[in-house]
């Protein structure tokens, strides 16, 4: 489908659907219907402390518990696909390798956090998004734009944080669900949460097992299984001090294609303990110790590899209040360790590195002007010192509109693969970090029953790491990424609307080509309606073409898919939910692979296809 037709059709549909809702919203401002979604939610990822979305001075998207329950996604990438400024590519469905691009930056140039603990592979630099079960989380925050001055390396495009349930407020509450559907898929989950005295707890487990779908035309089904567990416990003392622990682990296997049958056995794990102490009425101090693991054991026809990356972090954060102003001071120590990682029985030259950092942020409120100023210094054992900073200004135009402007710097750390990969000539220990500068302007309208947010930005990346003629990583390229994002949300009567329109121009400045695997136009439209004891909804996601390669020779066409969903309240504690993904059964492609013909010594690209029409049904006990 033509890109311009996608965008024009999407804008037309958005206008037709949004206009009556907006008119209805404006007519009900004096007596709005209680919202079923958060239209101006509290966000903590943008500034390290709670701020409402309109006060955060950032482009933010929050996917709350109600939305996650309605959409009942099979994977985390289903949640993220088409969100403002977010692009997702996959090498097939159900646990297959996935990349998440934020504002045109690479998957290793953004940060994934789980309750504040960073999770990613130190060898690739990217997170394994495909191995996290969305049923374990109650909330997703997406912050777009550089956050290097708060989170350090790789927060160039933005930060995505997943939040687990804190626990109940009283008697133990049991929930469980059982479901299944297409491709011999089975889904199970259960949780127990509650509180007693000052202690809150949440325990959960989930299982996902599927025969899977082919990842290439004419190929065999590629299965996937994932067993996950979660424990979160916290205790609040009479003094206000709080002590808590978190443990999350996902383990399973996924089949893929590598010139023949291949399989990954994986582990994704985060564990942490924190202590928070109100030293005075104006000074709060928090100490967090954590470990994250990304492990992958790969068996393919021509190679065997084992990657075991562990990241241990100690962070001390202090928040001081001065009237309407806040000051945040902190220090962080992080160590990456590869353990027994090796590929084809070759070990890495270096197996660990550490990073020391200090950071400070000032949140100043001079109503109607607000200011956020932050600065961070990182010293890394592998690539030296990096200083990042940001400045954001917000101005309250009236009771419903806030304008904002910001400037920020960030950097992407060279990965262990780029610095020390064992194969001769395939790494470069002298690499510098990629650095970036970003500017953004935006305006947000916040009303009782609806909101809208419009932002435009430009990011300049220097010292971009690319492969030279000998396939060795070097600092040579520059990139410029320009874009604009419009998001709208409304909750009127029994209707809930969410819409996101994204334009991006990710350009390699040395060649003038579009950066690989990034679409330039994206539209997502979500509509849901409450119907007595039931509900019905639909999502439409459309994206323009993209190129699989840096030379822009392998063009992947754009696509549009429609997803349907419905739910029924069968009894006070029992509900049924059904989803029908990719209703039109389209074979859409967001990435290509390459076969190598040993007889002719030629490379032959092939499409990674996504699953066609997929039906899932589940029955749930518990609210």
Automatic annotation (TrEMBL):
Membrane topology is: Multi-pass membrane protein
Q: Where in the cell is it found?
A: Cell outer membrane
Q: Coiled-coil segments, which residues?
A: none
Locate the TonB-dependent receptor-like beta-barrel domain: which residues? 181-583
- Write one Pfam family the protein is assigned to: Plug
Query: Which first-to-last residue range defines the signal peptide?
Result: 1-25
Q: What is its main location?
A: membrane
Q: Which residues form the TonB-dependent receptor plug domain?
A: 55-159
What would be one Gene Ontology cellular-component term for the protein? cell outer membrane
Gene Ontology biological process: cobalamin transport; monoatomic ion transport
What keywords does the record list, in alphabetical order?
Cell outer membrane, Ion transport, Membrane, Signal, TonB box, Transmembrane, Transmembrane beta strand, Transport
Q: Which family does it belong to?
A: Belongs to the TonB-dependent receptor family.
> How is this protein named in the record?
Vitamin B12 transporter
């Amino acid at each position: 489908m033509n890109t311009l037709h996608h965008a024009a059709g999407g804008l037309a549909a958005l206008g037709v659907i949004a206009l009556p809702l907006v008119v209805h919203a404006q007519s009900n401002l004096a007596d709005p219907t209680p919202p079923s979604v958060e239209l101006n939610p509290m966000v903590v990822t943008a500034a390290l402390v709670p701020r409402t979305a309109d006060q955060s001075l950032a482009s933010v998207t929050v996917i709350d518990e109600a939305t996650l329950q309605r959409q009942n996604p099979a994977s985390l990438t289903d949640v993220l696909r088409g969100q403002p400024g977010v692009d997702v590519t996959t090498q097939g469905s159900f646990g297959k390798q996935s990349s998440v691009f934020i504002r045109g930056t690479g998957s290793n140039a953004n940060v994934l956090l789980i309750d504040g603990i960073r999770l990613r592979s130190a060898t690739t630099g990217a997170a394994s998004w495909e191995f996290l079960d969305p049923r374990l989380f109650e909330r997703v925050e997406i912050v777009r734009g550089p956050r290097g001055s708060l989170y350090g390396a790789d927060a160039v495009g933005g930060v995505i944080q997943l939040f687990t349930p804190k626990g109940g407020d009283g008697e133990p509450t049991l929930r469980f669900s059982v479901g299944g559907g297409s491709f011999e898929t089975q889904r199970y989950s259960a949780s127990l949460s509650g509180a007693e005295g000052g202690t809150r707890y949440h325990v959960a487990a989930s299982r996902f097992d599927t025969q899977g779908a082919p990842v290439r035309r004419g190929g065999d089904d590629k299965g996937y299984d994932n067993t996950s567990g979660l424990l979160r416990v916290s205790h609040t003392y009479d003094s206000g001090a709080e002590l808590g622990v978190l443990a999350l682990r996902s383990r399973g296997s996924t089949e893929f294609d590598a010139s023949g049958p291949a399989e990954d056995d994986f582990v994704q794990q985060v564990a942490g303990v924190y202590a928070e102490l109100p030293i005075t009425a104006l000074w709060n101090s928090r100490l967090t110790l954590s470990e994250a693991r990304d492990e992958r054991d790969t068996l393919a026809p021509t190679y065997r590899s084992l990657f075991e990356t562990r990241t241990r972090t100690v962070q001390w954060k202090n928040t001081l209040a001065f009237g309407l102003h806040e000051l945040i001071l902190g220090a962080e120590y992080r160590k990456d360790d590869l353990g027994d990682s090796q590929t084809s029985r070759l070990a890495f030259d270096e197996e660990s590195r550490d990073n020391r950092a200090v950071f400070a942020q000032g949140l100043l409120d001079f109503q109607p002007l607000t200011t956020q100023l932050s600065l961070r210094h990182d010293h890394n054992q592998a690539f030296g010192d990096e200083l990042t900073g940001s400045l954001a200004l917000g101005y309250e135009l009236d009771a419903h509109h806030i304008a904002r402007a910001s400037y920020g710097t960030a950097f992407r750390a060279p990965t262990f693969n780029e610095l020390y990969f064992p194969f001769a000539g395939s790494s470069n220990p002298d690499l510098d970090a990629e650095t970036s500068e970003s500017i953004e302007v935006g305006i947000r309208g916040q009303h009782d029953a609806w909101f809208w947010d419009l932002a435009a930005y430009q990011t300049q990346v220097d010292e971009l790491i690319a492969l030279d003629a000998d396939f060795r990583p070097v600092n040579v390229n520059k990139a410029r990424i320009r874009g604009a994002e419009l998001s709208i949300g409304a909750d009127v009567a029994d209707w809930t609307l969410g819409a996101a329109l994204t334009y991006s121009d990710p350009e390699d400045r040395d060649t003038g080509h579009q950066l690989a695997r990034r679409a330039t136009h994206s539209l997502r439209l979500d509509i849901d309606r409450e119907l007595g004891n039931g509900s019905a909804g639909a999502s439409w996601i459309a994206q323009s073409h993209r190129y699989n390669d840096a030379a822009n020779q392998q063009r992947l066409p754009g696509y549009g898919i429609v997803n349907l969903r419905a739910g029924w309240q069968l009894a006070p504690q029992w509900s049924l939910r059904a989803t029908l993904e990719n209703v039109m059964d389209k074979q859409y492609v967001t990435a290509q692979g390459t076969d190598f013909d040993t007889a002719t010594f030629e490379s032959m690209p092939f499409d990674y296809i996504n699953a066609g029409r997929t039906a899932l049904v589940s029955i749930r006990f518990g609210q």
